[in-house]
Specification:
The protein contains 16 helices and 14 strands. A hairpin with a 4-residue loop joins strand 9 and strand 10. Helix 7 runs antiparallel to helix 15 and helix 13 packs across helix 14. The termini are far apart.
Length: 495
Amino acid sequence: MHTEAQEYGLSLRWVRFIFAAKEILINMVYKVFLSLCIGLALSASAALHAQKAISGHAPIQVETPARSSGQKHVLQLVTPKLETVRIGIIGLGMRGPGAVERFTKIPGTQIVALCDVLPERVEKTQEILVKAGLPEAAAYSGSEDAWKKLCERKDIDLVYIVTDWKTHAEMGVYAMEHGKHAAIEVPAAMTLEEIWKLIDTSERTRKHCIQLENCVYDFFELTTLNMAHQGVFGEILHAEGAYIHNLEDFWPYYWNNWRLDYNRKHRGDVYATHGMGPACQLLDIHRGDRMKTIVAVDTKAVNGPAYIKNKTGEVVADFQNGDQTTSLIRTEKGKTLLIQHNVMTPRPYSRKYQAVGTDGFADKYPLEMYCLRPAQVDSDIAPDHEKLNAHGPVSEEVKKALMEKYKHPIHRELEETAKIVGGHGGMDYIMDYRLIYCLRNGLPLDLDVYDLAEWCCLAELSRISIENGSAPVAIPDFTRGNWDKVKGYRHAMAE
């Protein structure tokens, strides 16, 4: 090396410097390159991880069909006043005769036609009209499609549908297509396809389509709703509802075993509306907020197949509906809703109705109670404020005083008569009265077709969630973009 350096005129010192500088430069380049590689790898990994996290938790989407050209929403729909509401009733089994009885006690109604597959049911129901001093109605029976002739009559304003679940939507659509308002027992629809048909038909024909949900008129529920509107609970953040009712003793009374058969063939919450209705009203669903996602779980099916085996000897290995189904819903504005369905186990009857607010709490089952911050209770109701606290329910005396102070105007008008006429303690009478009241006064109905859709959609959406490992499922906006047009739920009143 010394000799070579001398040949090129370089000293040994310079040679050593050059080699050292070369080594340093190589190391620097290597480190920079390695850092870049590591950085890129980490960035790619992070991006991939984020993508997986997003895709892994993205809700399952279901189709929202586009609204047809020229078709408009029916929010706050009003129709011409009807001095007398002429009614045709389809289905005279478990619920229909009671409806006929109630209508004989509601002013401004006329029962024009009655329909049932069995002629003897029609004849038996005619006796209710005769007893009330009213003329018999036109009778339709004897065939599976006799109801179509009722819907086609020109002298009917409202078709009141009280048949089994499987026929509800078809009858409602047909009634509206023939110029009638449709009132349909719960659940009014069992599939998203049926729901969209009812929505589109109502929007296209400009006819009311109401689901006959009576629980929204119960005395505790309606009083609590009024308290919520008055700000007693602060902001409602969470609501619960349920249908918990052991039907073991009732299965034989359903026509052709349709209800047990439906539970046998269908998974998910197939009967959600009793719990959904009051809870959705508390949360102003499609009146300022909307349901966004649902996650559902269920237990295995035990008592359903056991009942069938006990009664018939048949071993059922594929019974679909679990003994309990639980659904959790989140709204657009970050509130939650918990719904349960259980018709199989020996639990006390419960619709679970519960409201959780920033300043108070309400619960109907097993005991009616309110729990409030002391500041939320006026001194005229509870003068001894120091005995109140937010850790337990108010006393029975304070609860009664609250319920009297905040009694809903509908109950102030109808409570006494409702308890006499009856129908689930008076709820049915108030439900029917309000329907007729709104039609006669040209007011928006208390419930619209979007309420119907939202409360019925759990049947299919909970099933989809369960069958996909309890994955979140996106809930369609059934108003198709109009969920925030109405600000807060309110009952329409004539001036």
